[in-house]
Amino acid sequence: MLKDKRVIFIDILRILSILAVIILHYSADLLTRTNDFNTIPWWISNFFNSISRFAVPVFFMISGSMILRTEIKSYKQFYVKKVLPLIISLVSWSFIYAVYNQYFVLKSSMNVFQFFAHFAYGLAFDRNYIHLWFLYAIIAIYITVPLISKLVKACSEKDLRYYLFFWFLISIFYKFISDMVFRLTSEYINIPITNIPLFMGYLGYFILGYYLYNFSIPLKAKNLFCNLGVISLFSTPVATYFASVYNGTLDEVFYGNYSITTFFMAIGTFIYFKEKEETLHERMNYKVQKLISSISKASFSIYLIHVLVELLVSRRSEVDANLLQTTANLIYNVAIIFSISYVTVKLLNLNKYVTQVLFGGKS
C-alpha cells in the first residue's frame, strides 16, 4: 500500500477498467454500423469489445470491496459524503450531455423552457446519455449501503458464499439458460420462484467484491476462476460472431454484464490482480505507484467526461480497412481519448469549485 493506504491492485483494476470502458464505447460504433460479420474491422472491434466486458462488473466489485468494509456511524454523514457527490455529478453531466446533444448534434431549436422540461424528463428516466446509467445503478446501491454493510459484516464467510451461490444461479446461470432458450425457440423461460430481489442485480457484484477482498478462497477455486476467465476472454468474440450470424444483426447476449462469460472474466481478473498485490508492491517504485494512484483517483471523473472527449476528437474506423489500419486506429483513438480525458480532469480539478460541481468534489 501507499502512504495514503491505497491498495495497488485496486488502483490497477480501476485503470484497466476505465481503459476497457473507453474501448467498449469506441469499438461499439463500428460494430453497430455494419452487419458484415466476416470483415477484419468487425472482427477486430468484436475482439476488443469482448475482452473489455469485465470492466463494469469489476467497477461494482471495486466499490463493494472498498465501501462495505468501512464503518458507517451516521446515515446523514454517509449520504452527504458518498451519495450526494454522485447525485451532483449525475445532474451536472446529464446537463452537459443534454446541451451537447440537443444544440450541437441535433441542432435543436428548443427554447430554454422546453430544454429544461426535456432535460428534467431525461434526468428522471435515465434518457440523457448512454453511459450515465452507471451512476443511477451505483447511487441505488449506495443508498442501501448503511444496511448492506451491517448485513455482510454480520454474515460469516459461509453465509456470504451461500448468498453468492444463489445470486450466481439466479442472476448469471438462469439468465444464460433463458437467453439461450429464447434464441433457439423465441420463448423466454419464466420461473416465478427465481424472482427474488435480493439475489438479482448489481448488488451481487458489489458483495462479491467485498467477499473476494476480505476472504481467501482455496487455490483450486482461484485457478478454476482464472482459467474460466481466460476461456471466456477468447470464447466471447467467437460466441458473439455465431450468435450474430444466427440473428442476422449484432447479438450482444455475450456482451451483457450478467453474461456468464462476462462474469468469469470479471471474477478471474479481480482474483488475478489481488494475488499480485504483494508482487506489485515490491516491484513498483514509489513514483510509479504515485502515478498509478493519480490515474486511479481520476478514473471516476474520466468515466464521466470520456464520451464527450470521444465525440469531439475521435475518428471513426472504416468498415473496409485492413487489419493494421483498424488495430492502429483503435489503439490511437483510445490512447487519445484517455490522455485528453485524464489531462482535462486534472486541469479542471485545479479549481475546487469546478471539482465540486462537475465531480462532486472527487479529484
Characterization of the model:
There is one protein chain. It contains 15 helices and no strands. Helix 4 (75-105) packs antiparallel against helix 6 (133-154). The model has no long low-confidence stretch (mean pLDDT 92). The protein has helices at 8-33, 40-51, 55-67, 75-105, 112-124, 133-154, 157-185, 203-214, 219-247, 260-275, 277-283, 286-297, 299-313, 323-348, 352-359. The protein starts with 7 loop residues before the first helix and ends with a helix. The longest helix has 31 residues, at 75-105. The chain is an all-alpha fold and 363 residues long. The protein has one domain. One of its GO terms (molecular function) is O-acetyltransferase activity. Pfam families: Acyl_transf_3 (PF01757). This is Acyltransferase family protein. Its main location: membrane.
Q: Biggest sheet: strands, sense, closure?
A: none
Shape category:
globular
- Which blocks of ≥5 consecutive residues have pLDDT under 50? none
Which class of secondary structure composition applies to the elements?
mainly alpha
The percent range for strand residues is: under 5%
Radius of gyration equals 21 Å
Structurally, how many domains make up the residues? Answer: 1
Provide the residue-averaged pLDDT.
Answer: 92
Helix content: over 70%
Give the strand tally: 0
User: How far apart, in Å, are the first and last alpha carbons?
Assistant: 19 Å
Provide a count of the helices.
Answer: 15
Order of helices and strands: HHHHHHHHHHHHHHH
Keyphrases for this structure?
single chain; mainly alpha; 363 residues
